[in-house]
Specification:
The chain has 106 residues and is an alpha/beta fold. It has helices at residues 5-14, 26-29, 90-105; strands at 34-36, 56-58, 77-79.
Length: 106
C-alpha cells in the first residue's frame, strides 16, 4: 500500500496498470529499475521500499522530507534536489549507504 496517491499513480503509469486493475504488487515493483518522479508533488515514499531492483531514482522538485523507505535499497543514482530541507538522520544514513555502494561498484 502506498501512503501517497501521486506515487501510486506514477508507479501505475510506469507499470502500465489502470486504476481499475489490481493493486501494484511487490512482484511488479521489484521489476522496476529506473524511476523519474520529478515534480509530481509526491510527499511520501512509503511503498517504494519494495522496489528491490531500483538502481536509479530521480525525485526532484517534490515535497519529500523522509527518505527512510529507501534505506534498504541499493540505489546507485539518487537525485533529490528541490525537496524541502531534510533533517539529519535517515538521509545521512542513506547518503552513506549510497556512497559505500558506489565505491563497491568501482
Amino acid at each position: 500500500p502506498f501512503a501517497d496517491a501521486r506515487l501510486e499513480a506514477a508507479l501505475r503509469a510506469v507499470l502500465d496498470l489502470d486504476l481499475g486493475q489490481a493493486a501494484v504488487t511487490v512482484g511488479a515493483l521489484s521489476s522496476v529499475r529506473e524511476l523519474n518522479l520529478d515534480g509530481l508533488g509526491i510527499s511520501d515514499l512509503r511503498g517504494l521500499e519494495n522496489a528491490s531492483q531500483l538502481t536509479s531514482l530521480s525525485i526532484k522538485d517534490n515535497e519529500i522530507t523522509d527518505f527512510t523507505p529507501l534505506e534498504n535499497l541499493t540505489i546507485a543514482s539518487l537525485l533529490t534536489e528541490g525537496n524541502p530541507t531534510i533533517s539529519e538522520g535517515p538521509t545521512e544514513t542513506l547518503s552513506l549507504q549510497l556512497n559505500e555502494s558506489s565505491k563497491r561498484k568501482q
